[in-house]
Amino acid sequence: MRAMLRVFPPLTLCLFLLPVAAGLLGTALPAFGIMPGGGGAAGLAPWRDLWATPGLGRSVALSLGIGLGSAALSLGLALLIAAGAQGTRLMTWSRRALAPLLAVPHVAVALGLAFLLAPSGWLVRLVSPWATGWTLPPDLATAPDPWGLGAALALTVKETPYLLLMLLAALAQVRADRAVTVARSLGHGPLAAWGRAVLPRVTPLIRLPVYAVLAYSLSVVDVALVLAPGTPGPLAVEVVRWLGDPDPAVRMKGAAGALLLTALVAGVIVAWRLAEIALGRLARGWLTAGPRLGGRGALKGPERACRPVRNRFRAGVQPPPGTTVVRADRVRWRLALAAALPVVLVVTLAVAGMALWSVAAAWFWPAPWPSALTLETWARHLAGSPWPLWTTVTVALAATGLALALALGSLEHERARGLTPGRASEWMLYAPLLVPQAGFLFGVQALAALARLDGTWLAVVWGHLLFVLPYVFLALADPHRRLDPRWRRTAHGLGAGRWRVLLRVVLPLLLRPLLFAAAIGFAVSVAQYLPTLFLGAGRHPTLTTEAVALSAGGDRRLIGVHVFLQSALPLLVFALALALPAWRFRHRRGLRAGEVGA
Amino acid sequence: MTLVLEAVTIRLGARPLVGPLSLTVAAGETVTVMGPSGSGKSTLLDAATGALAPAFRLFGRVLLEGRDLSGLPPERRRIGILFQDPMLFPHLSVGENLAFGIPRGVSRRDRRARVESALDEAELSGMGRRDPATLSGGQAARAALMRVLLAEPRALLLDEPFSRLDTALRDRVRGFVFAHIAARGLPTLLVTHDPEDARGRIVHLSAGERSASGGEEPC
Question: Which residue of B has its CA nearest to A596?
Fold first, then answer.
């Protein structure tokens, strides 16, 4: 088995890093006039075409605005929730809300938002005409709006839960609760304590996830197609449009655009890092400054001397009512609630609105609810085109299964060899998430064509695997590495060989994280748009590609069916991932907490 | 049944961690290895079970019943190990835990009979279907020992096995463990930092070197 394990890291890299590198190359060559297999004259013509494209500046500006705005906003919200809700019941609720929020695909939220925000949308219907006086939908461009605000909002509400999930893992690693208790006992307020004692330590830990969010938001296509302005659209949308053009010259211009997009993402990440360093320098004075004694609600006069003592009391479980203690904690709790609630509300309303449309018989403006409900749309759709649903499920299951096997094999290899995971391996894992999809999938498609795989189901699975594997690996790595090595030693000492130890001891002990990783992988696969499009060559439509295609037509009932299915499938898998171990181990108290650590 | 360490030296990179240590543990005998934390006690046990982390290098030989164990995977060395935690698999019942190490080829009926009699021996009669998480500390410690013994080991290693138990329980569990070891005549290596747990000959490890007290084997 040891020999077999050795296969995994190179195999993982081949399936994984090679395509990214080859994909970038396969995109770079056409950008300089060389079409793989198609000839063409080498030169800078594609770049000249690109610079001459009218509206290029506006495309870049839109991408920057949507990407930077949503990434900064979601990071801010996630930090506010993590800092403000730490140790409160709100944190328990937030944790519970994470899985379903992560499960809903980006484009489902975008399509739901399109209905919420449209001039004839749900929000306007709920207040018209009694409050607004509008008897006709107002003549405003709200979905899409000219600045891409809707797209930024959709990205924000989707990225906030992801960043919060990453933050929570980082917080556990640095034992944030104890750091805050110590800082507060030294006299710092709750948020100041968090900012001084925790933030500097979690920042490096969530750097890569933040970069991944930046890269994703800057280069997102499906959400932008639904909610961003179209003439011209954000750079990624334009690039994908050009890459799909029948004219080779336009495709080469698209390749140049894809490189520009990659450079844009790289530049933004570098700028973000520089800004982070600058902020860190500026904040140094603040970080080491002592607590404010004369602040609002502070004890005055001779009592000042005993303030640190009072504050130690603050950090305790039961602060006495009516003191400043309660006020400071109430403020941070409210801030966290103000950050968390809109995220949950927007996603819930977006999905609920479309779910309602899918069963609406008639829903005329400005009625707030459909006048009658019917399952006719569902029956018509499922009878007419069940294939996208089938493809979605089979591709997601195959990609997730492969990803689980690869991740587990690599982790077992790492353990058997006593390797300690380094920073380099983490960067490699993140590579497909840091390079814009539009920047290398065109090259991957060319690679698949060379292998005569393009347009096959297998190619689609492989395309999804590129994005499923990093998430599955990240979700599984921590629990796997934390597993007490004495479990294996005990089992070996009882005469169990490697396979038996893996199957009878390690996998059951890791069942919970394994299934959770699988659920994340499944959700990631269901949400993939560009990989399905590029590698499936349009022959393997999924719910996501169908939904995006439908968004242009505006049949809200049919979009509703897709949004509901798209959200319900991953939700169902998440529910199973939580319920299965709970049921399987219902008589095993030692596993109920889900943690088998030291 | 004899467990022999022959000039065992363990290095971490260039740094010598343990040894050279030569030691013969006769059948039914217990030898205690003592030392402060960081002196390589647990690493020595890892070397004997074959679970040494790849960063360490082992020189010398470990022999069991005259057979050189070098190169044998942990599961084929027939060396049982008990940790300070009972390490009963939380996903299996108490009975399934006990049956885990019974060698292949034993008939289903025979397996059940062995588990039942082991449960009786450990005063756990009728608890075979219980969740291990519901056992008391003493019950779990006894179940862990019975699980090791059912795997028919040829030698036993104890890694601070009593340090998590409270004093009242400790004497009883210790008595139970050593009575069973003596009854089966197993050579036993015990590592601990607690003089109270020590028994038999005592070998002291200090960081990087070894000093002997008591009747250490002349080699």
Answer: B90
